[in-house]
Request: fold
Amino acid sequence: ESEPLLREALEMRAAVHGESHAYTASTANNLGSLYHDTRRFAEAEPLYLRALAAQRQIYPGDHTTIARTLNNLASLYQDQGDYDRAEPMFVESLEMRRRLYPSDHPVVINAVNNLAVIRYYKGDRAGAEVLFAEVVDLRRRVLGPDHPEVAYTLSSLSACYKHREAYEEALPLLEEAIRILTKSLGETHPRLTSVLHNQAEIQFRLKRFEEAERGARRSLAIHAANPQGDAHPNALSTWALLTGAVLSQDRSDEVRAVLDQAAPKMLAFTGRVTPTVSGALESTAVAAEKVGRTETADALRARLAELNAATPP
Reply:
């Protein structure tokens, strides 16, 4: 219902006030946000650009609404995977907000985090690491050391360490994140699953297979206790990790037991194939072969081929 109302309001305000008016720009931005939220990206972009052009005319120099629209447009490009177009807009939005607000204002902190994320996605792990470390420090000071947002940023920072294979440095960050989330959100909150998986993955890379197994099992138990269950796409990679951790301890019978649980969930998966999903099915197929489950391995690879064929490029 809101779309026709916003369209009508935009047409009316443009007719009454003209393009370069705050009401027109605000309504264009709101309609763009509606399309953005519903993944109608091609319709959202011209509205954000229209709002931004008007705001630059209305407010010479720095203004909070310009910074907000720049951030919206950058987020739109990020959601489409167009990181090269997103980054300069995140940079401009951050620089403007630094000039408009104190350095520890929440909108500045969020803008730093947004830029860190885009640099991580672009492969600039060193640049992302510096920014995530800044966000951790700011959020600790502003929100307190045990706030969930601190935990989420610690997890992001640990991913930068993982990519440069600084595993021993990454683990304490994840341990702190798990402690914070367990304390603030409870032991079965869904946000714990990814942090536990990341911790287990690093333990696996350090060849601490028992610890990796424990973390993977805890993550899957939380998945199972929540509405989306342990067949959720994010859980598939944890099933694969658990299979690998048990296999690495030469417990073939238990690997088969894990496969009996994991393989049906993977074979029933119908979503979009991502590198994570693809890697989970392939590594589980390899594990199945190693314990003599060739039929399971063949079925997993056949299902992966079907999913790849059905996933748009």
